Amino acid sequence: MVSDHETSKNAPPQRATKSRGGDQEMGEALRSVYQQTIDEQIPPEMLDLLGKLE
């Protein structure tokens, strides 16, 4: 008798299907987070430390 565990081990992995709309939304979300990171101000403490490296 073959257990469910053995059967699932041999079965090909199931892939989640994504719609193009989902991919577009994810891309927009990633661009938004990236832009927020770029726009973030550098803390004064970090600028002070960087200034000491010169």
- How much is the average pLDDT? 81
Rounded to an integer in angstroms, the radius of gyration calculated over CA atoms is 24 Å
Tally of DSSP β-strands: 0
Q: What would you call the structural class?
A: mainly alpha
Percentage beta strand? under 5%
Number of helices: 3
Question: Multimeric state of these chains?
Answer: single chain
Order of helices and strands: HHH
Low-confidence stretches: none
The general outline is: elongated
- Give the N-terminus to C-terminus distance in angstroms: 72 Å
* Main sheet overview: none
Q: Can you walk through the features of this model?
A:
With 54 residues, the protein is mostly helical. 67% of the residues lie in helices and 0% in strands. It is built from 3 helices and no strands. The protein has helices at 4-10, 20-39, 44-52. The longest helix has 20 residues, at 20-39. The radius of gyration is 24 Å and the shape is elongated. The termini are far apart.
Write the layout of secondary structure elements.
Layout: H1 4-10, H2 20-39, H3 44-52
Tag the structure with descriptive keywords.
elongated; single chain; mainly alpha; 3 helices; 54 residues; 0% strand
Q: What's a concise summary of this model?
A:
This protein is an all-alpha fold and 54 residues long.
